[in-house]
Design brief:
Strand content: 15-25%
Order of helices and strands: EHHEEHH
Structural class: alpha+beta
Distance between the termini: 49 Å
Radius of gyration: 22 Å
CATH topology: YefM-like fold
Number of strands: 3
Number of helices: 4
Number of domains: 1
Largest sheet: 3 strands, mixed
Shape: elongated
């Protein structure tokens, strides 16, 4: 939680404009009430950019994955 700032609900209410400025700079705010997490204030992201980035990460994971046995081989193994 490196870029997450924890703030109590009362403090969040009194410093809301300042917290919004922090969020617009990329910071994430976790709002707590009596120490328990209640809400998260996060920057709005462009959905197309976020989806594109996520698909790129999936491609990297897929490229590093090793191929396992196929369905046919697994079925045959189960019959033994």
């Amino acid at each position: 939680m490196g870029n997450v700032m924890e703030v109590g609900a009362f403090e969040a209410k009194t410093r809301f404009s300042e917290l919004i400025d922090l969020v617009s700079g990329g910071r994430e705010i976790l709002v707590t009430k009596r120490g328990a997490p209640m809400a998260r204030i996060v920057p709005v992201v462009d959905r197309k950019v976020a989806i594109s980035r996520l698909l790129g990460e999936f491609a990297i994971v897929r490229a590093g994955a090793k191929a396992g046995p196929g369905i046919r081989e697994l079925k045959e193994e189960g019959r033994r």
